[in-house]
Specification:
alpha+beta, Chemotaxis protein chec, 3 helices, 29% strand, globular
């Protein structure tokens, strides 16, 4: 498969799987959007490192308003009823689910170990990552995956 075509397939998988998880598990309509990253400085971000047949990292960044709606949808409560810490916990779970889903679609034969998700400061998209931005009704979400070692993406 030509390298350009392989990259397009990987890009499509990252986009479609991320949107499907957000819609089916978190009840948020995710529409792919142009990447405008000025909002990332105020985002809530979570990193999941992975290793095994592939080594790398997954980064999820969510605007504060979208994070509240995601948490409320996942927990089945009104945004006003969220208690301190719940939004962060749901984002940790979302990042774990998204990372596992995307990686299992990209590398179905792989053997991966996911580290526990951790909140991290944001500011930029990691260099060399596959990246997508989505717009949810309440704000933007960015998904980035960077594979540092492992078989080439084909």
């Amino acid at each position: 498969m030509p390298e350009e075509s392989a990259g397009a397939n990987v890009d499509a998988v990252v986009a479609s799987v991320s949107a499907a998880v957000l819609e089916t598990m978190f009840f948020e309509e995710a529409v792919e959007s142009e990447c405008e990253h000025a909002w990332l400085e105020s985002a809530l971000s979570v990193r999941v490192a992975f290793n095994g047949s592939h080594t790398g990292e997954f980064l999820l960044s969510v605007s504060p308003s979208a994070a509240q709606c995601i948490a409320a949808g996942f927990l089945g409560v009104d945004s006003a009823d969220l208690v301190e810490g719940q939004t962060g916990q749901v984002l940790l779970e979302l990042s774990n689910i998204l990372c596992g889903a995307v990686m299992s679609h990209l590398f179905p034969e792989s053997s991966l170990n996911l580290d526990p998700p951790e909140a991290v400061p944001t500011g930029a998209v990691p260099a060399g990552s596959m990246h997508h931005c989505f717009y949810l009704p309440d704000g933007p979400v960015a998904v980035s995956i960077r594979v540092l070692e492992g078989p080439q993406l084909v």
